[in-house]
Amino acid sequence: MPKVAGGGATGVRIGKTVASVFRSKGLRVIGDRDLRDSGRSSPRAGGSWRLDAARAVGADFLVIIKNSGRLGRYRAEGRVVRVEDGRVIKRASQSFSRKGAVRAARALARSLVDRMRSAQRADVPASSSSSRNAEEDPSAWMMRPAEGTPPSGAQTGESSTTPGTPDGPGAGASSRKDLDPVSERDPGETRSRRSSESGRRILSLYLGAGARALNRYALVAQGASTGHDYAVAPLLLGLVEADVRIPGTGAELRLQLSTASVQYEIEVDPPITPTDPKGRFLDGVLGARYLFGLATIGREGVLELGPAAVVNRNSVSVDRQDRDIVTGYGAWSIGAGGAIVLEGSRAWRLEAEATMSFVTQFVESPVTSGTNGRGLRFDTELKGSFWFNDNVGIFSSAQYGFQQIGFTGSGTRGEGLLRVNEEAPPVKDATLLTSDLKICLGIVAGF
Q: Which of 15, 146, 353, 405 has a 20 to 30 Å separation from 112 between CA atoms?
């Protein structure tokens, strides 16, 4: 098994991982250095020296691994050459980012092992040497050292610019389809052909519907309710979201919009007009996160954790009333927090995020509860998705938000009949508390 061509430190990781998988399957590996030390052939012989040396030591197969890429996006390509006739019997590849090198190498190695085992079963006895060696050690298929030559670990971990073919550039492989009896679309390879990093989608689009299950609004002053409090029954919710991964990095961006229509039923004495004003909640989130891999789970699962940043826009619009008991508002907030993601086998994904934001602007209309509205907002979200195939899946999510806004002064809400009842304290230096819970179910498309 020659050393990995190209990739620097990434090539080193790929080579070591491939060799480790081969050994875990009970296979014997020998690299360029051992081929040279065997004395059967050397680079000075030119052209096909690796293939000649592999034949000389009684190997069944020669594995070529080549790594290429730039700007954090890489592609590892592997070929299996049958030593007996020099034919390429398997080609496989994996695309990945820098931090996905180990996972991609494992998937690539498993694909190559499966093909070589099937070829060994089909071809034995392919030649006198391969038949003899199979009887001695059925699992030793790769470039076995000749008698008296001690086995050694593969030198696959070294980075090199040596051509990744057994016979120099372009040699040792053929473009003729009849040289590869196995379809290029074997299941292991097909699962890996997605956007990047062994199949991770670059763009995910969400479309969902659900309920704005909790809607609370409370305005307090001097430690008591001002009477401007309400809770709205669950509302029908619509949600759209776009998530974008930056290839070759752990960065993710998302844009989410949700909306729900509401009709209030206001009962005060004396009555207001209208008693059932209509309104609309409209929320937007622009978020970014950077995830770092913590652990590999199973064969293809991964656990990631990282910081998150958000910009929130939350607003309510309400029809005018003659005394404006319920008023609309719009708020901007910016904050930071953290996210954790658990993803398994490219078929499912669980993610949780929590952020704390500073409300930089809070504007009420048509009446106000005070001036200089500022405060804090807390948001958390739990989302899970399940993919039926590479491009289509379903998702569900739950989001909770809470904000506390402080005002100074009286504002226009504290004048005369704008107070709901005479027992309530005047709206002065008030504090506004709002909370909401959104539950959603829908479809997701990935690209």
A: 146
